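Field: sequence (string)
Field: structure_tokens (string)

Example rows 1 and 2, in order.
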Amino acid sequence: MPTISIFYGILIKMLFDDHNSPHFHAEYGEYERVVAISRIKIIKGDAPKRVKSMILEWTALHQEELLQDWELCANMQTSFSVEPLE
């Protein structure tokens, strides 16, 4: 599962050849959230409220790049890094 971005201790990852609608996994310590990209929303998982806010803000800022990375991963190609939240 390639890590495409890291910010404030949050690791953003995508699975190769994953099924379902475009999404990514956000890991923060023992927490993991699965986040839909096309229509930005939390699909499952839990994390502190502040972490959730940062993940959703970052997703909105990089939605197009994330969709491009989703296509690459879905086709078993190398994804590119996405700028972290500053």
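Row 2 begins here:
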Amino acid sequence: MSVNTRLVAAKVLTDVIQNGHSLTSALATVLPTLESSKDQAFIQALCYGVCRQYHRLQFILSEILDKPIKDISIQVLALVGLYQLNFMRVKPHAAVSETVFAVRKKPWAKSLINAILRTYLREQSALELKADQQASAACSHPDWLIGRIRKDWPEYAQAILFENNQPPPMVLRVNSLKTTPSAYLARLAEQGIDAVSVDFCPSALRLNKPVAVDLLPNFSEGWVSVQDTAAQLAAALLQVQAGQRVLDACAAPGGKTAHILEAQSQLKELVAVDNDALRLQRVSENLLRLNLSATLILGDAAKPEEWWDGQLFERILLDAPCSALGVIRRHPDIKLLRRAEDIAPLQVLQQAMLMALWPLLAAGGLLLYATCSILKRENELQIQQFLTTHDDAVAVPIHADWGIAGIGRQILTGELAMDGFYYALLRKH
């Protein structure tokens, strides 16, 4: 029996909008049940696309309607239809007929969806022009987020908002224990997969087009992992040396844990801590595929007294919980789910973790603070506050061909094709 992909996409999006589930988890419950990879790809494209353009589509829908649609599932289906007509290479008649067919069990909705989509086709130019003149619709972001980005990065705000709506590149991290970037680049070329090396990050290869991981040569044998270039910078910044004891706090899903082990195989011990059992299991699975080992601990990084054995670490990576506003292009549902009031509690948690983990660092040791946020409140201002209360901490300058220098270094979304990321390196004296 054929699947109505529009209906499935609408159900996934309704789960995100109504129930607050992440797009990743909502898709994970649906896509594996579908036999056709073509259907899976189309549904995924619809869901990611509607999330990226949600605020613009909602504005256009409100301009077409006299009053809002109370049934959220029908409202979402209207957005699915509008997205196809404006952003996809779906023939208009097919987009309209298939979207209308998705609500065949609700006659009132059938005629409503049909009217909405046909009105859009008739008045498309005028509706799009109106959307371009309204801030939230023009860049498809919530007003509060536009305000925060403009406040922190006035010169770069327009570029950030634009980049947030672009699909991200797929980047591989080459496992130096298995092969070299140049050798793996040649392997990819043999498979007809176009990729380029990244000058400032030797482990990274950026694909020209995303591919399924099972098409990557020797992926199951651990030759490469999928990890954005910005996240790959952590291992080198940490300057890990042989014989050291290293702590990776908030380690899941384990990409940076694995990269540290790949970069330095002669560690005394790497301890990876996370407070989510399921996510910690993913760390275990990733290490198993890569044939790497670490001490995994289920625990709260803000409460080391519950799990720490009293032995100091020469290096600590704190990949702090954050608003994730630097990875919106990978997770566009963040624009729908994140709220302005979420930021302050995250700041409190970040500061608590910094305060709790600092005593675990040996004299002369380095702590690398990282977030995938672009907000100064979570990044530079957070470190500034920490330094005012810790006389034994000094910020180590990060000299690099990427990012904006300050206290630490800020990568803005899209810079050198990277996700938005922040790093600050602190030395204990």
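free_text_note (row 2): The chain has a mean pLDDT of 97.
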